[in-house]
Each structure stands twice: as structure tokens, then as C-alpha cells.
């Protein structure tokens, strides 16, 4: 401020003087001093800086003492904006809500919201109103409450309760008229600020054209101005010179450019940005001239705004495509002060980039470097991009010495590390392996105690997934590059541990997330009883039962059920109380987080998979080669066994086989008789063609009846029924004790920690449950489900335990299952049956079939084995942005430790018979273990394996192969 401004400021209220000084400090990036200015005035301790409860109390107390008026509310709005500068959006929202005495519930009722805002809104000046509008709308949008953000905007325009179902053009016209009425008579600065704020709403409302006209009218632009760069530049500069606060005008220009871009007029958008900067096309040929103009513009803008301006300008240069390789390069070099010769000198790079980064926040620095590197790569300057990336990672102290509070720039650093590995993974073995190890350590500790916010999760998933892929490709490259056998086991173990920590890190985050909401089990029917369907099916109506009549295994539960065997049904009252189990008690949360905080060790993995376990980690590398590592666990430690590295076309071959199998099953699975034989032949051909690609024969000496095989795969390897793949001509399930799919070894360790703290262990569970739903017209599936119920009731009788069932009375609905699980927590087996779907939000269709059962409202931790007889819900998917996804993942988050599910469509009767056999085998194995006083070890996976052996032996020709192969076991035992 100059002397006159400082003199005038002395006559302002203290709050406004603090705001002026804080704004001056924020432009310089001195955010710690900004907070101290506000905190000293409000009486907030530095330790309370980001404490939401403390701030709510202090702000509320201060406003109660000083009143809510223009000065105090403006002060609160500016204080909230300071939190936005350091990405503390939830704290910012707390300040704004407290200032107007708003609660989150107020946004759920528009009339209530309007009434609360009316208390203070009309007594404050337009500038204060707009400060609050911009703050509330912006922060609500950032935290994922977009509809509420627009409600604030609609309230200010007086159209909160406007009927949006009326004729569309009329609605748009009313909105436009409301905007012009709102702007009428306001100072030019306020109009500019308001337009820069509401341009984000133009596309949502569908009034981009009218919004653009409002912008152009404000500035006095004509269509001819866009084609005359000199005239356009003069008009823009003259208009902004009229404003008291140039930032309002600059943001308004952003609004014009953004609106032009979204309406397909990129040339005009580029003209606006270049015009304000005074840049003409010829300047891109003269980097020094361009540099002077760009540095002059940067001096007028806050550092974050300048970075946004640069990104927008580069995007438009690439879209318009005049000569992006030349123009983008020139702009990037002009912005950071670099020249071509500097890329040969590490000292020059360091000196100039440090000057450019001075004053930026840590996360902004990393974001700037990532954008710079990314843009250079896009225009073909890969060498320059790699040099800048390497320089920044080497000098980023928080990567090498991770602070206890974490690294605020972690998301951008993860992206930069991904680029580093892409540039350098073949550079030098020791350096690359060092970076691999440090990356895993950094990811473990870099989030600090707060963890990543839910609103950032999708970006986090994408970045970590790509980084995981880059690290593992680097690790596997050097693992297979160096054929020194004495060194391979060590490298193999390291690569495996990196994989364990990086793979499905999201699952571990979800599993321990305290804030994950569980919806209450509403509208639960209170039944008179949980009962099986009234009448049992007739075995003679099903030819397949006659084929299986020779089956006499001790655990078979599918045949010979008599009405007289039906047990008394216990009375149950469903409880609609919300399941709060994911709001984990602090001590449990610490137990679950500990493996992540300290790193997963080989001993922890060995303990989680137990004794006699052969771990097989299988993946497809960047070149499409099938790669696997094998380890043996004795329950205490891991021992490297073998590795395999395949051929570049493996990925495509496996994908085509899996895709064809999937397609053929979906075409033929509903066809009776011939369709069943076709599917059996199809699945047999599928696994036989896979056998020579997987090379499991290299492990043949390790396969015997004492081994529990634990698989951890990714990508389209999830489509492979490994249990049925022949090894030296014999299906794998016939050679081993059990086969389990681990969703993630991190999840294994976490689940084991959680399961060890359950009040009641599996052996104390003295009940089973079965629930199904098919429409009355769905005769075949409905009749098949009766066999499932009959088998479970028979099992309950044989083993002297209770059986609970639901189908018609009570109806098998989402709410009734939630009630059953909440009221009777602990089940040895709970079997659910209904049509399934395998999309990203897959689940089981029950009576309320407009929605799917996905575990909502259920604490599944008390269920030893969750057995699901539904098509395709065991299917897993992976794409380039998301790690492994699927219904079984969702159930794991709801604490389902052990799940058996079908990965593709199955015939209902065979599936129900097979599910009964699985349940029967598990009860038998559990009783045997209890009699011997042994700890349960792979009993559930063994039950599935034994059921497959029994059906294989009984049918001889594998008549049910497709159905058996569809069933997969996921989780821990």
C-alpha cells in the first residue's frame, strides 16, 4: 500500500484493516502470517488452527459478542477464504456456516434454508453477500455437495423455489431476468465479481449464450474485437483499470474464456487470454519478448491464479493448434525463465526453477512441476520433461525425509514419481530399486495422520494405480534382467512386498476409514417368523438329481430331505437400528491401521495366510507378459520358491480367451439340456487352452494334498478359474487341499487383525441362514431355491443347530436381511440367492428389486462363510483408473471375511445343489476341527474344494463343470 492508502486505512474498523493486511500477505504466499492475523483477533490458539469443533465454538462466541453485521460477517468470509488457500475446505465451510448460524440439516429443506438466510441476508451489503455466495458455493462444490451449492446461488437470485418442471425456455428466461435484476445498480467491481462467480452455473442451467452476452455487455466487447488483438487488448486493459480491485476483472475474464471454450469457440477464448496479456502470435517466435509480457502479467496475479492462467492458455493453444509445439514450448520457457541451453546444466535448472517456485505452497510447487513436465512431454520434449522431473524429485525433501504430519503435495508427487519411472526405469539398477523402495515408504507415511479426504479419492485411485503399475514394471524388469540366481530371491521378495503395499491400497483405506457411512436398514418388515418356503420340491421333476442319486458323501446336504426333518423355527424381530460398526472404536482403528503405518512384513503375510500355504502372485507386465512369483508360507515366514516370465502376447491371448468364454456363456447359459453340455465343453476348452500359458507345471512338485494355494491376481486374470486349470493333465483342485483368491494381502492382514478381535469366534456360531428371492413367474429359479432352503434345514437338523430362512414370509428384501444380520449376528453360514449383476455397483436382486443388496446396513463380521448363489457377482474388474473392483470388494468393506460367489452365470438348480454341498462340507470340517481342538485352518476354502471333488467324482464326465468352475472363494480363512 502507498502512503495515502495507509493513512486512509487508519480510519477503517480494525477488522477491515486486518483483512487488507491479510490479503497483502496472501498475495505473497505468507499463509502462516495470514492465519496469525485472524487468530490473534479471534482469540484462537495456533494448535486450534484446523480444529473444526474449536473454530466453530470460537467464531460463534466472537460473533455473539460483536453481533452479525457487515464488518464482522465480511471478516468471517475472508477468514474462511484463507482456509481455502491452504486446501482446508471443510474448516472453511464450518466458518461460513457458523457465521450465518447454518447447520448441514438446513440445506435439506429449501424453505428452511431460505428462512435461515433471510435472518441476516437482507441486512448486509451486496459486497458481503457476494463474498458469502462465492465462499459457500465454492466450498460446497469442492466437498461434493453440488446441489446445495446451487441452492445458495438460486436463493440469492430469488428463484430457489422456481418450478423447474415448467417449459424450459421460460425457466431459462426467468433465470436470466433474475441475474440482470440482481446486477442492476451494483458497483462495477461487484458486477465483475458476481459474473466471475456465477459463470460456473451457466452450463448447468443451460444459459451459456445469455451469460456470455452479459459478460460482453459488461466490458463493451463486439464480435469484431475478437479478430483485432491490439484493439481487444486495449479494451480489456481500459475496462480493468476502472475497477477498484483488478482481481475481480481478471476472474471475470476467466469466466468469459471458460464460457467461450465450453460453447466451442476456442479461438475467441484464446483471443481473450492473449489480449489481456498483450500477447500477439509473433511473440511466440521471440522468447525474450514473450517472457517480458508474461512476467508483467504474472506480477498482477496471485501465484495460484497465474498458474491457472498458464494452464488455460496452454490448453487453448493446443486446441486451436496454430503451432502448439513452438508456442507451448515458448510459453513454458518464458514462464519459468529457462532456455534450451539450461537443460545441459543441473545448476542452471536448479537456480531458475527455484526462483520460479519461490513463494508457492508446497503442493502448488509440485503441481506446477507436474504440469510443466506433462506439457513438455505432450509436445515431444521428453528429455526436457525427464530432466525437470528428476531434478524436482531429487530435491523434494519430503520424499526422502517424510515429516510426521505427511506431505501436503503427495498427490502431485505420486504423479511425478509415475513419470520418473516411465523415464528412468531402465537407467540404473541400484538407483531404480532405491526409488522403488522409497516410493513404497513414501506412500505409507506421506498422508500423515489425517489420511486422504474422501472428495480426493478418485484422483488418488487413478494416481496410485498408475504409480503401482510403474513401480512393479520397474521391479519386474530388473528381476528378469538379472539372471544371477543368488540375487533373484532377494529382488523377488522386495518386488513382492512392494506389490503387496501398493496393490489395492484403496481397499485398505476403505477398510479402516472411520467416516464411511452405513445406511440404516429402514422399512424392515417385522415377521412372525423366518421360515423356509412352504412346500419342498419333488426330486423326480429334476433329471439331474437322478444323475446325482449315487452320491453318498458324508457331508452331502442336497438330497433326501423330508418334511419331518424340518426344525422348529426360532422367532426373530428385525431391528432397524443403524449399524455403526464401521465407526470403528479408537482402539480397533489403531489395530487395523498399524500394518499400514508400519509396513507389511513377510511375517505378517505368512501369519495371515497360515501354514502349508503356497502363495502365487500373478500379473501381466507392461509388455503383456504373464509373470508370477511363488512363495511358501509356514505360518511364520515366507520362502521364495520360483518365478516365471512369459511372452509379450500372453495378455492378448488370455484376454481373447476370457472374452470369448464370457460371451459364449452369456449367450447359451439359459438354454436347457444341450446348453448345459455346451457350457461344460466350453469351460473345459477354456481351461485347457490356458494351461500352457500359465505354466503352473513348473510348480507341480509343490502341489500336494497338504498345500493351500493362495492366489493374488489382477487385470483379466480374474476371469481364470485356476482351480480347474489342468496341471500335467489333472485339474489343480484335485491335487491340493484348497484354493483361495486373496483380494489383497494388505486386506488379509487387516482382516486377520479385525477378526482376532471379534467377541465370538467362528466355532461358537450355532446357526445357519438362507434367504432367497425370485418372482413367482420365475418358476425354474424359484423351484431351485426351494432345494437350497431344504438342504440348509436338513443340515441344521443333522448338526443340531438353528436355521433361519426368508423367502416369502418374511419377504427376502434388503431391509429384512439387514434385520436378520443385526438381530442374529453370528452365523456359521449365511447363504443368499437371487439374480445377480456384476457391474461396478453389482449386487443381488431381492424382493425390492428396484435396488440391489450390496451389504448396506449390515455388519457381516459375525458370518464365518457368506455363500452367494447368484450369477456373476464374484466377477472382478480392473481398468486403468480403478484398481480391483467388484461386489466382493464391497462386502469386504462391510467386514465379510470369507465369501464364496459365482464369477459368471450359472444354472440355478445345479448352483443350489452345489451350494448345499459347500455348506455341508464346511459344517463337517468345523466339527472335526472342534473335536480335535484344532484352530480352523482353511476350512472354508477346503469346503469348496471338497465339494468340487465330490461333484467331480459323482458326475464322472464333469456335467456340472461350468457351474463348479464359476464358484470362487475370496478372503481369509
Which keywords apply here?
five-stranded mixed sheet, 16 strands, disordered N terminus, 8% strand, single chain, 973 residues, 39 helices, globular, 55% helix
Topology (SSEs and partners):
Layout: H1 3-9, H2 14-27, H3 31-42, H4 52-66, H5 70-85, H6 89-99, H7 110-121, H8 126-142, H9 146-157, H10 168-183, H11 188-205, H12 208-219, H13 229-241, H14 246-262, H15 266-277, H16 287-300, H17 303-320, H18 324-336, H19 346-357, H20 362-378, H21 382-395, H22 397-400, H23 410-424, H24 429-445, H25 457-481, H26 488-502, H27 505-512, H28 543-547, H29 586-598, H30 602-609, E1 613-620, E2 626-633, E3 638-645, H31 650-668, H32 674-694, E4 708-712, E5 726-727, E6 730-731, E7 738-741, H33 745-755, E8 767-773, H34 779-799, E9 802-806, H35 814-823, E10 827-834, E11 836-837, E12 843-845, E13 852-853, E14 863-869, H36 887-893, E15 898-902, H37 908-932, H38 939-955, H39 961-966, E16 967-971
Parallel strand pairs: 1-4, 4-7, 8-9, 8-10, 10-14, 14-15
Antiparallel strand pairs: 1-2, 2-3, 5-6, 11-12, 12-13, 15-16
- Structural class by SSE content: alpha/beta
Proportion of β residues?
Answer: 5-15%
First CA to last CA: what distance?
69 Å
Helical content band: 55-70%
Average the pLDDT over all residues and give the rounded result: 79
The number of E-state strands comes to 16
Widest sheet: strand order? 9-8-10-14-15-16
Q: Which geometry do the CA atoms define?
A: globular
How big is the Rg?
A: 33 Å
Oligomer: single chain
Number of helices: 39
User: Could you name the ranges where pLDDT drops below 50 across 5 or more consecutive residues?
Assistant: 1-11, 514-584, 759-763
**Major sheet size, sense and barrel closure:** 6 strands, mixed
Amino acid at each position: 500500500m502507498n502512503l495515502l492508502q495507509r493513512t486512509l486505512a487508519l480510519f477503517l474498523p480494525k477488522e477491515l484493516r486486518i483483512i487488507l493486511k491479510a490479503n497483502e500477505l496472501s498475495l505473497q504466499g505468507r499463509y502462516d502470517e495470514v492465519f496469525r492475523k485472524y487468530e490473534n483477533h479471534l482469540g484462537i490458539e495456533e494448535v486450534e488452527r484446523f480444529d473444526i469443533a474449536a473454530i466453530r465454538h470460537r467464531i460463534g462466541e466472537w460473533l455473539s459478542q460483536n453481533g452479525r453485521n457487515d464488518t464482522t460477517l465480511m471478516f468471517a468470509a475472508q477468514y474462511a477464504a484463507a482456509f481455502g488457500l491452504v486446501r482446508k475446505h471443510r474448516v472453511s465451510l464450518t466458518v461460513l456456516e457458523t457465521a450465518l448460524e447454518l447447520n448441514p440439516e438446513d440445506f435439506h429443506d429449501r424453505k428452511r434454508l431460505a428462512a435461515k438466510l433471510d435472518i441476516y441476508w437482507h441486512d448486509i451489503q451486496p459486497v458481503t453477500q457476494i463474498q458469502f455466495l462465492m465462499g459457500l458455493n465454492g466450498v460446497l462444490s469442492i466437498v461434493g455437495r453440488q446441489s446445495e451449492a446451487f441452492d445458495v446461488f438460486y436463493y440469492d437470485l430469488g428463484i430457489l423455489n422456481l418450478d423447474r418442471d415448467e417449459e424450459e425456455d421460460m425457466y431459462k428466461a426467468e433465470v436470466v431476468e433474475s441475474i440482470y435484476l440482481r446486477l442492476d445498480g451494483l458497483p462495477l467491481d461487484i458486477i465483475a465479481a458476481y459474473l466471475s462467480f456465477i459463470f460456473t452455473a451457466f452450463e448447468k442451467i443451460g444459459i451459456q449464450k445469455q451469460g456470455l452476452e452479459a459478460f460482453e455487455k459488461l466490458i463493451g466487447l463486439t464480435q469484431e474485437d475478437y479478430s483485432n488483438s491490439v484493439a481487444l487488448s486495449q479494451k480489456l486493459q481500459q475496462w480493468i483499470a476502472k475497477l477498484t480491485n483488478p482481481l475481480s476483472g481478471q476472474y471475470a475474464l476467466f469466466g468469459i474464456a471458460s464460457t467461450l471454450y465450453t460453447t466451442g469457440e476456442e479461438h475467441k477464448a484464446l483471443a481473450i487470454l492473449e489480449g489481456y496479456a498483450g500477447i500477439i502470435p509473433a511473440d511466440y517466435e521471440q522468447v525474450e519478448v514473450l517472457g517480458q509480457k508474461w512476467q508483467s502479467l504474472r506480477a498482477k496475479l496471485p501465484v495460484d491464479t497465474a498458474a491457472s492462467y498458464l494452464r488455460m492458455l496452454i490448453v487453448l493453444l493446443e486446441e486451436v493448434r496454430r503451432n502448439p509445439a513452438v508456442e507451448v514450448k515458448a510459453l513454458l520457457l518464458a514462464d519459468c525463465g529457462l532456455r534450451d541451453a539450461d537443460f545441459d546444466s543441473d545448476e542452471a535448472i536448479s537456480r531458475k526453477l527455484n526462483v520460479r517456485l519461490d513463494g508457492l505452497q508446497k503442493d502448488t510447487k509440485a503441481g506446477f512441476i507436474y504440469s510443466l513436465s506433462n506439457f513438455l512431454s505432450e509436445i515431444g520434449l521428453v528429455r526436457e520433461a525427464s530432466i525437470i522431473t528428476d531434478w524436482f524429485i531429487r530435491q523434494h525433501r519430503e520424499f526422502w525425509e517424510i515429516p510426521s504430519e505427511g506431505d501436503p503435495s503427495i498427490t502431485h508427487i505420486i504423479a511425478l514419481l509415475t513419470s520418473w519411472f516411465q523415464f528412468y526405469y531402465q537407467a540404473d539398477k541400484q538407483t531404480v530399486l532405491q526409488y522403488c523402495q522409497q516410493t513404497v515408504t513414501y506412500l505409507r507415511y506421506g498422508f500423515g495422520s489425517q489420511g486422504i479426504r474422501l472428495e480426493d479419492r478418485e484422483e488418488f485411485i487413478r494416481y496410485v494405480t498408475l504409480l503401482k503399475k510403474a513401480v512393479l514394471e520397474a521391479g519386474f524388469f530388473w528381476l528378469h534382467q538379472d539372471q544371477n540366481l543368488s540375487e533373484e530371491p532377494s529382488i523377488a521378495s522386495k518386488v513382492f512386498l512392494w506389490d503387496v503395499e501398493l496393490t489395492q491400497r484403496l481397499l485398505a483405506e476403505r477398510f479402516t476409514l472411520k467416516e464411511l457411512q452405513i445406511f440404516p436398514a429402514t422399512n424392515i418388515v417385522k415377521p412372525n417368523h423366518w421360515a423356509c418356503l412352504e412346500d419342498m420340491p419333488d426330486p423326480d421333476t429334476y433329471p439331474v438329481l437322478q444323475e446325482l442319486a449315487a452320491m453318498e458323501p458324508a457331508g452331502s446336504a442336497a438330497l433326501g430331505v423330508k418334511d419331518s426333518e424340518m426344525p422348529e423355527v426360532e422367532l426373530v424381530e428385525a431391528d432397524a437400528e443403524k449399524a455403526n460398526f464401521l465407526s470403528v472404536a479408537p482402539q480397533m482403528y489403531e489395530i487395523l491401521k498399524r500394518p499400514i503405518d508400519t509396513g507389511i512384513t513377510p511375517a505378517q503375510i505368512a501369519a495371515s495366510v497360515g501354514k502349508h500355504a503356497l502363495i502365487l502372485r500373478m500379473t501381466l507386465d507392461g509388455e503383456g507378459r504373464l509373470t508370477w512369483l511363488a512363495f511358501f508360507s509356514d505360518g511364520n515366514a515366507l520362502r521364495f520358491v520360483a518365478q516365471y516370465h512369459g511372452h509379450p502376447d500372453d495378455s492378448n491371448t488370455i484376454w481373447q480367451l476370457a472374452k470369448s468364454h464370457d460371451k459364449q456363456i452369456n449367450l447359451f447359459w439359459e438354454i436347457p439340456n444341450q446348453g448345459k453340455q455346451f457350457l461344460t465343453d466350453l469351460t473345459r476348452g477354456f481351461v485347457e487352452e490356458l494351461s500352457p500359458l500359465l505354466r503352473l507345471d513348473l510348480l507341480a512338485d509343490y502341489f500336494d494334498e497338504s498345500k493351500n494355494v493362495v492366489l493374488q491376481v489382477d487385470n483379466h486374470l480374474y476371469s481364470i478359474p485356476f482351480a480347474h486349470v489342468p496341471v500335467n493333465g489333472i485339474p489343480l483342485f484335485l491335487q491340493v487341499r484348497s484354493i483361495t483368491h486373496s483380494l489383497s494381502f494388505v486386506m488379509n492382514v487387516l482382516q486377520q487383525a479385525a477378526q482376532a478381535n471379534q467377541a465370538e469366534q467362528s466355532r461358537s456360531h450355532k446357526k445357519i441362514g438362507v434367504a432367497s428371492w425370485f418372482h413367482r413367474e420365475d418358476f425354474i429359479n424359484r423351484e431351485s431355491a426351494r432345494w437350497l432352503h431344504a438342504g440348509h434345514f436338513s443340515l441344521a437338523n443333522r448338526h443340531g443347530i438353528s436355521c433361519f430362512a426368508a423367502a416369502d414370509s418374511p419377504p427376502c428384501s434388503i431391509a429384512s436381511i439387514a434385520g436378520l444380520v443385526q438381530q442374529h449376528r453370528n452365523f456359521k453360514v449365511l447363504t443368499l440367492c437371487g439374480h445377480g449383476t456384476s457391474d461396478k455397483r453389482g449386487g443381488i436382486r431381492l424382493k425390492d428389486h428396484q435396488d440391489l443388496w450390496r451389504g448396506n446396513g449390515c455388519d457381516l463380521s459375525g458370518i464365518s462363510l457368506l455363500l452367494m448363489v447368484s450369477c456373476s457377482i464374484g466377477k472382478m474388474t480392473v481398468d486403468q483408473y480403478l484398481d480391483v473392483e467388484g461386489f466382493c470388494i464391497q462386502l469386504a468393506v462391510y467386514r465379510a471375511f470369507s465369501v464364496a460367489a459365482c464369477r459368471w452365470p450359472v444354472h440355478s438348480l445345479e448352483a443350489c445343489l452345489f451350494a448345499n454341498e459347500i455348506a455341508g462340507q464346511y459344517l463337517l470340517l468345523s466339527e472335526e476341527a472342534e473335536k480335535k481342538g484344532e484352530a480352523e485352518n482353511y476350512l472354508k476354502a477346503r469346503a469348496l474344494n471338497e465339494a468340487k471333488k465330490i461333484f467331480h467324482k459323482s458326475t464322472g464326465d464333469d456335467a456340472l463343470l461350468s457351474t463348479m468352475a464359476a464358484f470362487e472363494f475370496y478372503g481369509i480363512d
